[in-house]
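Help wanted!
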Amino acid sequence: MSDAKKQGWEITAEERDALYKIIFSRRDVRGQFLSDPIDDSVLSRILYAAHHAPSVGFMQPWNFILIRSQEVRKKIHTAFTKAHKEAAEMFSQEKQEIYKGLKLEGILESAVNICVTCDTSRSGPVVIGRTHIDTMDSYSSVCAIENLWLAARAEGLGLGWVSIIDEAELKKILQIPEHVIPVGYLCLGKVSHFWEKPELESAGWLPRIELEKLVNFEYWEGKPAKEHDSFVKQLKEDADFPLTAE
Amino acid sequence: MSDAKKQGWEITAEERDALYKIIFSRRDVRGQFLSDPIDDSVLSRILYAAHHAPSVGFMQPWNFILIRSQEVRKKIHTAFTKAHKEAAEMFSQEKQEIYKGLKLEGILESAVNICVTCDTSRSGPVVIGRTHIDTMDSYSSVCAIENLWLAARAEGLGLGWVSIIDEAELKKILQIPEHVIPVGYLCLGKVSHFWEKPELESAGWLPRIELEKLVNFEYWEGKPAKEHDSFVKQLKEDADFPLTAE
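Answered by r_m:
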């Protein structure tokens, strides 16, 4: 009997498949939020999932600022609108038309907004694993966001990440000090439905890239050698694996 | 009937609990790797999970460099060893002793190494959602890493993130061009067992922070108001929720 079994931590095939189903049906939600409140117990579970993300040197650099105040949200929404207009100007004429038609946030209508931060000073100046790559601490907060996102999906809730906003403006509104990075500004809530595919894929903005084009061997431009034939064949065969909708 | 149900995408309570079990039992594995190979079908599924991470503007900026060559791994290991020595010097005398006793990577003994990158030029110069926050593309690659990590755990495999390495050195060894960021260098493989708790927690390096200390309301230092009483109570009650081992 393995240690994993002894610990009651062996993952069954059904549990494994549940993870894949949740991963493949997770969406970046913007336009389908309902105003219904979220149960305390659900929000609590989701935050524990985030808190158990991996973190560099176990520093747990995250905070979770829960924003329900409409006054604060309106300030955030104003900052978003300003950035959104600036962004539109950056696209080519053709893309601009599609861009302007996209709904890209649910700040005011979702049940709650959550700003996930990274406190770079947490646990002192020297952190195991951050000694050579400075960004490792904010990467930990991103892992927390992905855990939170998957847990939300598992609870039937939608989540959208708002990144079209000036960071300095966001910090000012939320009174975030210099040494803290607002890594992600999230909208969370019940939804009318989840899209079958990512919205930008459905809207024809960009296609899903074939996975085998993104896999390299031994180094950056390394092509598959003869010994990789069976693996590359498997990758191609699994192209429809992510389509779990019944 | 909700759209989620119609799509066959409603998540059951059992499926939700499976996600939490996987999240809470995920570990950063360094010292428990076995050399057994990974099945093609398992590695393929794990990479699909990574490929279905959220990405800013649906740019899918990631590549997955699979490294099996012992020659390449030895170069990486040499670069790690150099950085590791430099890092040790940075800690206080007391912490240095613990630090030196920690095994922090499984580069040579894991079944495969995977470098997950971020191609900042993918899908052109202007990306929806990256117009105001430059780091959003590498954050997408981090989300892919977290998906990959959870999928690995669900398949019974261990994963460790090696971040004690000079980035320029890593790019040189793997021939990664200027515009591509090596976001994470991962070791993946079968393991003898998973630790009951994170190693750095068990080693007394740092304690797990109480979640309620990391939750703020409306702004950075916002304390809970009267209306948040029931939620804060719930957070405290759920303190033992993550302990899923039976």
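OP: Thanks! One thing I noticed: The first helix of chain B runs from residue 3 to 6.
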